[in-house]
Design brief:
It contains seven helices and four strands; from the N terminus they run βαβαααααββα. The chain is an alpha+beta fold and 119 residues long. Strands 2-1-3-4 form a four-stranded mixed sheet, with helices on both faces. Helix 1 links the parallel strand 1 and strand 2.
Length: 119
C-alpha cells in the first residue's frame, strides 16, 4: 500500500472529512498536524508549489493569510513563497494529501481517487 500523508490541522472541518473518507476507504495514513508538528521542509514545499501551482497551494481564504501584511500577501511563487509558508505553515491549503502517486490540496474525492484507490 502506498504511503499516504495528510497535512492539516485537527480543528479543520475539511481535514476531518478527509480523515473520515480515508478511514472509510481502509487507507492507512500519517496525519501531520501543521500546528503541532510544524511545517514540512523547504524542498517539499517547493515540490508542492511546482506540482500544484502556487495559487492552489497558498490558502488565500485563511485567517492566517488575511493577517499578513500587504507585502506578504503579494508573494505568489518561488523561494519567497516557500519562506512564507515555512514561517506560516497554516497558509498551506488544507487538507493537503500526498501519496507516492501525487498530491492534492483541498478535499475532493474525485481528485483523491486520482492518487489513491478508494474501496
Amino acid at each position: 500500500m502506498a504511503k499516504l500523508v495528510l497535512y492539516g490541522i485537527a480543528s479543520c472541518d475539511t481535514c476531518r472529512k478527509a480523515v473520515a473518507w480515508l478511514k472509510a476507504g481502509g487507507h492507512s495514513f500519517q496525519f501531520h498536524d501543521l500546528r503541532a508538528d510544524g511545517p514540512p521542509d523547504a524542498s517539499q514545499v517547493r515540490a508542492w508549489g511546482q506540482a500544484l501551482g502556487w495559487e492552489t497551494l497558498l490558502n488565500r481564504r485563511s485567517t492566517t493569510f488575511r493577517a499578513l501584511t500587504s507585502e506578504e500577501q503579494s508573494i505568489t511563487e518561488g523561494d519567497d513563497a516557500v519562506a512564507l509558508i515555512l514561517r506560516y505553515p497554516l497558509l498551506i491549503k488544507r487538507p493537503l494529501i500526498e501519496s507516492e502517486s501525487g498530491v492534492v490540496a483541498g478535499f475532493n474525492p474525485d481528485r483523491l481517487n486520482g492518487i489513491i484507490s478508494h474501496a
